[in-house]
Amino acid sequence: MCTVVLRWSGGAPPQILALRDELTSREFDDPGRWWPEYADVIGGRDRSARGTWCATRLSTGVTALVLNRPQKRVADDGAPSRGVLPLLAVCHETDWPSHVRMLGMASFTLVLAMPDRLTVWTFDGAQLQATDRPPGTHMITSGGAEDGKADRYQNALERGAFPDDWRTLVERSTPEDDPAALVVQHEKDGVTFATVFAQLVEARPGQLALQYSRSPWTSGQWQDLRLG
After folding, report:
1. Going by fewer Cβ within 10 Å, which terminus of the chain is more open, N or C?
2. What is the reported pLDDT for 105?
3. pTM surpassing 0.70?
4. Which residues have CB under 8 Å from 37's CB, separation 6+?
């Protein structure tokens, strides 16, 4: 995951746009119930590490998302995959750090969106820091040049209605070789790194409304999943 936009007002269901940027050769599954040990968790599944970039727990309406960070790009041998973190976070909420051994993990940002709280953890490969975010519309990226996305899109996202205006903003984007673009595509040495998935999430206890697309810049390519 490389970009998360989250509108939170305290007590209302958090509204989320999540854009996943990844190697186009890395296979994944659309959102579903992929983990028997987490029976009421819905999310897309990465086929390589078997984890996820975004998970929602249907019974509580809690959503967690993980973004890569640049400080430690490669995990040590034997360290857990970052893809396990959203699963742990939606099940254990703010206590998730006590359920994983972070030593050797690659750096990350973890976003935990609950009806009454929005918390963001950042791990640089050594230290974990948590910050509670106030009500509002927040854009969270992987850092570096990607932070320039806020200058381009923050105002439109703050003014826009969820989900229609947010989806239209993505649909009107063209994949660019620019890390500050909303939808990206970069080719180097025969491989392509691009926006491969987008999803719009609104969840409350017992209900989930999810729209998603593998080519979100193309109008009409979105699918709906509603549960509860």
Report:
1. C
2. 95
3. yes
4. none
